[in-house]
Fold this sequence. Notes:
By secondary structure, the protein is an alpha+beta fold. 48% of the residues lie in helices and 15% in strands. It has one domain. The protein has 5 helices and 5 strands.
Amino acid sequence: MFVFNGVLVIKCDDFLVKNKHIHAFVCTAGGIEEDLIKTMQPFLLGRFDLSGAGLHAKGINRAGNILIPNERYLHFELFMNEFLEKMYQKQKELGRPLCTSELIRELGLAIPGEKKEESILYWP
């Protein structure tokens, strides 16, 4: 399980997360986005010395030495559009907005595929 932290990637111990020994993760919305993207479709491992402009011209983004093809973001956008519509309906049913922790929990539950347990969002 990997969590982005700036341009570095931190390896989190799956055992600690799954067994609730970690009580909180502090990250930006970008950390949540990247966690979802890499869980749904894997990132590629590159090198720190690759040209950012050269990669961009090929439709590839970079976070340190992690390479993220543009299609990963397109897949994420489609997922989020559907997810946000469901959350809007849920808020209407509840008669109130969802708080951040509820929204993140719902994101974890909505992750498709066999790799969802690799996401920090999956484990409440």
